Amino acid sequence: LNAQISPSSATEVASLSNACGQYGLSYQDMTCPNNEKEMECPISDRMTITSTQSSGDTPMRCGPQGTFPDLEELQLENQNGRTDSEGCC
Questions:
Q1: How far is CA 42 from CA 17, 18, 30, 45, 73, in A?
Q2: Rounded Cα distance, 21 and 30, in Å
Q3: CB under 8 Å to 33, separation ≥6 — which residues?
């Protein structure tokens, strides 16, 4: 998955929920082609992930509500209307 940081147009700050989808995409709803199905895994609301690379100042992260208290100010609405990053890893 090639995810890019997309700032909120109102604030020019990248939303934490961009880890769940950007540009109209919903990453947790994406599936692999038949020849790569072994790479899919079930969504877990308890899963926590922090990216190792990021095109922004803050790595992309996803996890249950309250996992990243230092990023609460980034809980802005993304283009899909999400404000959280739970269950989208």
A1: 19, 20, 11, 10, 29
A2: 10
A3: none
Find which of 7-16, 23-32, 53-62, 75-84 is predicted with most confidence, using mean pLDDT: 23-32
Q: How far apart are CA 75 and CA 18, in angstroms?
A: 10
Model's pTM, two decimal places?
Answer: 0.57
Work out the pLDDT band at 36, boundaries 50, 70, 90.
Answer: very high
Instruction: Render 21-57 in DSSP notation, one character per residue.
Output: -STT--GGG----GGGGGG-----TT--EE-S--SSS
Q: What is the pLDDT of residue 53?
A: 66
